[in-house]
Amino acid sequence: MSVKAKKHLGQHFLTDESIAKKIADTLTLKKYTTILEIGPGMGVLTKYLLEKKPKVTVMEIDSESVTYLQETFPNEHLKLNTSKEKFQIIEGDFLKQDISRIFDHQQTAIIGNFPYNISSQIVFKAIENRAFVPEFSGMFQKEVAQRIAEKEGSKTYGILSVLTQAFYDVEYLFTVPPTVFNPPPKVDSGVIRLIRKENYTLPVDEKLFFRVVKTSFNQRRKMLRSSLKSFNLSDSLKEDPIFAKRPEQLSVQEFINLTAKIANHGI
User: Fold this and answer.
1) Please, are residues 192 and 172 in contact by the beta-carbon 8 Å criterion?
2) pLDDT tens, 181-240?
3) Rg (CA), the chain
4) 87-91 and 55-60: which strand pairing?
5) What is the DSSP letter of 196?
6) What domains lie within the chain, and their CATH numbers?
7) Would residue 223 be called left, alpha or beta, if left means φ above 0 and alpha means ψ between -120 and 50 degrees?
8) Theoretical Cys-Cys bridge with 16: which of 33, 102, 180, 214, CB 3.0 to 4.6 Å?
9) Rounded distance between C-alpha atoms, residue 25 and residue 243, angstroms
10) Average pLDDT of the chain to the nearest whole number
């Protein structure tokens, strides 16, 4: 398949086999029986996932890539360590799929070399479906990977950082140079791993928490008493020291505390 034909998908194809194997090996293979690879393209990562014990499903939006995968990984090739049910190809857009229905609520790890232009949306969808996504591993534009893993006090710390870290432990694993892709991107890539916090329930209303975080960072240079004025904060509540801070100064736990304060005073 031509690279030109794929440019509209925002994807750069990994060509380095050692990097592909290294990404596949980021999976812990704990507490799940299924792996979902998003955007497998020409299957360079897929082949190493198929060496793992869990069942592998790949989801690809491009019909030419789907045909290539079907020809490259026929079922009979997969009988080396399990049944024909080990491998499944789904043609479709991950962002439009009901993955809870597809996987029948089975615990499923997500992995991929994610298209830069939709990588944040992929993470948000994984968060929405976290009840059955215990692990999420893959390659992003380095700036996005760092943002997901960043802690408070940094200029890159933001909505994606807080909402991901509220439910997952995030680890930045390694950096990948542009030279291992075709076509080479103009920036480095970064590989991260998210492992779900077990037996954890957000101690505040989730919708309110998401709204507080997003509203706070929409005007990140302002103090919270200004950026959150749409919540109709009382004068007494605005005197709380936390409202004199800017959003990037708050840890995930402090955002939870902030949400609780707002909820307790009514909105």
Assistant:
1) yes
2) 988 999 999 999 999 999 899 999 999 999 999 999 999 999 999 999 999 889 999 999
3) 20
4) parallel
5) E
6) 3-196 (3.40.50.150), 206-264 (1.10.8.100)
7) beta
8) 180
9) 43
10) 90
Q: How far is CA 208 from CA 64, 79, 256, in A?
A: 42, 49, 10
What pLDDT was estimated at residue 11? 66
> What is the rounded CA–CA span in Å between residue 50 and residue 46?
6
Residue 154 near residue 146, CB atoms below 8 Å: no
Q: Is the pLDDT of residue 61 over 70?
A: yes
Sign (positive or negative) of CA dihedral 78, 81, 84, 85 = negative
The Cα 85–Cα 1 span in angstroms is: 27
How far is it, in rounded angstroms, from Cα 163 to Cα 195? 14
Statement: the pTM of the whole predicted model exceeds 0.70 = yes
From 213, 71, 78, 88, select the one nearest 152 (Cα to Cα).
213
Q: Which residues pair with 181 in a beta bridge?
A: 14
